[in-house]
Every structure is written in C-alpha cells, then in structure tokens.
Write a structure and sequence with these properties.
Shape: globular
Oligomer: single chain
Distance between the termini: 64 Å
Radius of gyration: 23 Å
Bound molecules: flavin-adenine dinucleotide
C-alpha cells in the first residue's frame, strides 16, 4: 500500500570515497526518484506540513506540480515563498519542521520534502531561472545589514514589493555562514552564489567589504536617505571554554578553522595559498552542526583520527541526525559524555593532550535536557595534534556599540518585538542569529520575512502621514 512505502533514498557518495574529497556528498534526486517520492504524498486536504515551515511554503501545491512533471512551475511556486530553495533543500532541518508534521510520519517515513525542494530548485537552475515580472519602484529606500539568509530574505521580500533595497555586507562575498561556515561538501558555493544572483536580479544592490559600525553607522545610513534599516548581522563571534591551555598552538575556534577551510579555500592548497595546520589526531569539542562540519573537514584535510567530544549523550546531540550519521559513516569517533578540563602543551607551545572528565546525566535543567554532571575522579587524557572548539557563537557587538538606544540582551543579541522584529529604535528592525543567537537558516529567513512585512507597513503608514 502506498501509505507504507518507505521514503525514496537519495544517492550519496560512498563514505570511503567522499572522506577524501570536498565534492557534494548527497547527489540529489533524479527525475525518476523525485516522481517516485512525490507519488507518496497524500495531497492532504488539511496539510499539516505547511504549519512546520517558518516561511509557509505551499508544500502540497509544489509537490502536486512535481507529480504532474511540471518541475519549473513547482520551483516557481516554492520561490513565491522562499528565495533560497536550493540552499534550504540542502541544509534545513526538515525532520524538525515540515516533515515532522507530515501525516505519513505517524506510521512510517514522512515525505522527503527537503529533497523534493532541492530537486525542483536544481532543475530550474539547470534549465534556466525564470525571473518574476519586474515591479514598479514605490519610492522608499531600505538598508539591509548583512548578506546572510536573514538579510537576503528581507531584501528580496522588500524588493518584490517595489522598495529600493541596498545590502551592506562586511565580507568580500555575499552569503554569510552559507559561504564561510557550511562546507562545500554539504552546500556547494556555486549554488549559494546562484541564489544570491537571483536576489540581485530582483534588483537588490549589494555593497561588499562594507562593515556597518566601521564604514557607516546606522545614523549615517539614515542621513544618506535610507528610511528603514534591517540588521541581519548574524552571530559570528566564537565562544570559548575559558580553560587552562586554551591558547596553545594547534587549537582553533571552529569559526577560524571553517573560514580558512571554506571561504579561504585551504582545502584547495596549493591553488589557494591558505595555511592550515591539521595533524593526524583532531578533537572537536561540541555536538552541533558546526562540530560535525569541523570534524568532517578535518578528515578531508588529512586527519586519520577525528573525535567529537560532547558532554551529553547521543540523544542530546544538537546536530541534524543526517549529519551525525554522515560523520559516523565517515569514521568520526564519538566520545560522548565527556568534557574537557584543560589542554596540555608539549613544552614548546603546541597542544599535546586534552584532559577530559567523564560525565553522567543528572536532573533536567532549564532547557528541559538532562544536566551533565562530572563523575568524580574519572579524568583521563587524550593525545591530540589539534583541537577545534565548536561550542557556539555570539553576535559581533560592533553595531550594538555604535548605535545609541539599540538595546541588547545580556548575551549581546538585539532585543526585538517578536511580532514585528522592530528593535528598540524606530525604523530599525533586526532578525536572524543576531536576535535569536546561533540558530538555523530557515529561522533566519522566517524572521527576515516578518521584518520585511513590518518595514513595508511602517513605510506605508509613514507615507500616509505626509
Ligand atoms: P549569517 O549567516 O551569519 O549572516 C550574517 C552576515 O552579516 C554575514 O555575511 C556577515 O559577514 C555580515 N555582517 C556581520 N556584521 C556586519 C556588519 N557590521 N556590517 C555588515 N555586514 C555584517 N543552519 C541550518 O539550518 N542547517 C545547517 O545545516 C546549518 N549548519 C551550520 C554549520 C555551520 C558551520 C554554522 C556556523 C552554522 C550552521 N547553521 C545551519 C546555522 C545557520 O547557518 C545560521 O543560523 C544562519 O546562517 C543565520 O543567518 P543570518 O543571516 O542571521 O546570519
């Protein structure tokens, strides 16, 4: 019976082969596989999947178009809600969002909505992207800070309404974490740039190498004729453990390690002359997507023993299940229920060992997860050549420090009204990781969509006043 048919597998590179290269691991559905998967969709009258999507994609309607082999139309349908479908189809945690609500999931595998989204977006890119009809300018100018998923979404949504939008991006490439954090083997950079180009073709201008807070302040943006500002500057500042020995050579923040590897292309040495010093034994501290990416990059850069050190157990790992599985298949060693105590040097300034303490899970903490508690006298040492610290990121404070009246939480995130994404300043909105703290691509995009609607309302009302 169709109801019980398992999900259609997506072809992947074999682990032994892929751990030696940076090519994309998951190869995507062929037309035949996409049709097979779409045929499982029940086209529910009261679809639950849409409720799980932070950008409200009309999922049943795009899957129906796939069933009819109208792939280009399906991509167009998705793009009415999401300007970055090839990206979301690859990296969104669908298992906790749309797919979690799919009715088929009650008794078996839910529909692989993300794989279908990726398929239609890739199909459209191959046959040629169709642009929506050009909109008439309606005479308002908005500045967007940051060209990550939050900024790009806000910009695209505002431009589609007819506002003039300019993005100010600190780096020399647009894309945010999609370019500098998530590795090529999960999200090819050509795909990110193709979706950024779509946003540009909508008419959004992007100024690169333009750090707001250094080059211009928000006040100066207003002085230059912008009527509203959206801050989507992300959370790019690495957190540290503050343990003895953390400054030893060979210890990287995941941020630095991934920027060198992905943005500065250390993996293509000597074509790109970016130094990266990765030895044979690497320990990654943390259990999220950033930790999995760091571990899998280390393998590809030549390490032969890579450890994930995480203080809770397997069920608590915050990384996407698929990425944990991929890391395991590639041979990453999971050292769970362990926490670093200090880093020990070789006497010449290089890290040589980590002292770890075993942990057990105690009572649930405020987050509802069981609190990890050290087991007395259980310390042990793991010899290492490198350590990568992947325990979270916080917002860079430069905008907050240069903008009077912009209030922040004690974690440095910008305070906004949840319903509108307005900050404590008039005409200044914010969203994405800079508000939520490190989260997901789709939640940043969802916040961008809300902010765009609010900015549009604000500008409409402002016009009425005159
Ligand atoms: P960012 O993507 O950080 O973009 C912010 C942009 O603002 C950057 O380009 C930055 O250069 C720019 N900027 C910062 N300050 C300024 C300034 N003062 N002036 C001008 N520009 C500025 N999420 C998922 O959903 N799935 C995953 O699989 C996943 N994997 C991840 C792997 C890694 C390694 C990392 C680090 C994150 C991952 N995430 C994942 C999280 C996700 O990438 C982020 O939640 C998302 O990118 C946040 O979007 P954003 O637009 O708020 O910020």
């Amino acid at each position: 019976m169709a109801f019980n048919k398992p999900a259609t597998e997506m072809p992947k590179q074999f682990p032994e082969e892929r751990k030696k290269n940076f090519d994309e691991v998951a190869k995507g559905y062929t037309k035949e596989l996409a049709l097979e998967e779409a045929a499982r969709c029940l086209s529910c009258k009261n679809p639950q999947c849409v409720k799980g999507c932070p950008v409200n994609i009309d999922i049943p309607s795009f899957i129906s178009l796939v069933k009819e082999e109208k792939f280009k139309e399906a991509a167009k349908r998705v793009k009415e809600f999401n300007a970055l479908p090839a990206i979301c189809g690859r990296v969104c945690p669908q298992e906790n969002q749309c797919q979690k609500f799919c009715i088929l999931g009650i008794r078996g595998d839910p529909i692989e909505i993300g794989r279908l989204e990726r398929f239609v977006a890739d199909y459209e890119r191959d046959v040629g992207v169709e642009m929506p009809d050009a909109v008439k300018d309606i005479g308002h100018k908005v500045a967007v800070i940051g060209a990550g998923p939050a900024g790009l979404t806000t910009a695209a949504e505002l431009r589609k309404i007819g506002h003039e939008v300019e993005i100010f991006e600190a780096l020399h490439v647009p894309g945010g974490v999609l370019m500098y954090g998530i590795p090529e083997f999960r999200l090819p950079k050509a795909i990110v740039q193709s979706e950024v180009n779509y946003v540009k073709k909508l008419g959004v201008k992007i100024h690169l190498d333009s750090m707001v807070g250094k080059l211009y302040t928000i006040e100066e943006l207003f002085d230059n004729g912008f009527e509203a500002v959206f801050i989507g500057s992300g959370a790019g500042l690495p957190n540290f453990l503050n343990l003895p020995g953390e400054n030893l050579n060979g210890i990287y923040s995941a941020n630095e390690f991934l920027i060198r590897t992905n943005l500065m292309k250390a993996y293509r040495f000597p074509e790109y002359d970016t130094p990266i010093n990765i030895g044979k034994k690497v320990a990654v501290i943390g259990g999220g997507n950033v930790a999995m990416d760091s571990a899998r990059c280390s393998l590809r850069l030549g390490a032969n023993e890579v450890y994930i050190i995480y203080r809770r157990g397997r069920n608590e790992l915050p990384a996407r299940h698929e990425e944990v599985e991929n890391a395991e298949e590639e041979g990453v060693i999971f050292t769970l229920l362990n926490n670093p105590v200090r880093f020990i040097g070789d006497g010449r300034g290089n890290v040589k060992e980590i002292e770890l303490v075993r942990m057990e899970l105690g009572e649930p903490d405020d987050s509802g997860r069981r609190r990890p508690v050290p087991v007395p006298k259980s310390e042990w040492r793991l010899p290492v050549d490198n350590v990568i610290i992947a325990i979270g990121q916080s917002p860079n404070p430069i905008i907050q420090q240069t903008t009077n009246g912009l209030e922040t939480t004690r974690w440095g995130t910008i305070i906004t009204d949840e319903a509108t994404m307005q900050t404590t300043l008039e005409a200044v909105y914010a969203g994405g990781d800079v508000v939520s703290g490190a989260a997901t691509v789709i939640s940043a995009m969802g916040a961008g969509k809300i902010a765009a609607q609010s900015i549009n309302e604000y500008l409409k009302n402002k016009k009425l006043k005159y």
